[in-house]
Give the backbone structure.
Amino acid sequence: MATFGLIAIFGLFSVGMNTSKQADTATLLAALSLQVTDQLRGGTNSTLNISTNFYFDKQGSATNLAAAYYQCLLSTTTTNSLPLGNLSNNFVSAKLAFSWPVPIPSANRTTTNIFSSAPYRP
């Protein structure tokens, strides 16, 4: 009976560790998406309708491809479909596709898509 109890406790421990890891990753991805959209908001027309990569290390600091753990492919398009009248002309739709870990082939990476709309300065 004691063995059964220990097995159950160890099973719950692994589930808890996995949930904690997923929560940490989700929190970091939210912070990374803010970094990318803040750069987009501070841009001008030259940053619109683009597709570019951003790279981050495990702690969320911007880095280059060689040192990256997370990759963010930013795809943007201007939009006139928002129900804001003339204000919708100053919004850009962004798709942030995060994938990790970068050192392994892209087919084996975990990918999360985040969609956002951000104002820009015309």
Observations:
- The chain has one domain: 2-119.
- Residues 99 and 106 are 8 Å apart (CA to CA).
- The chain has a mean pLDDT of 80.
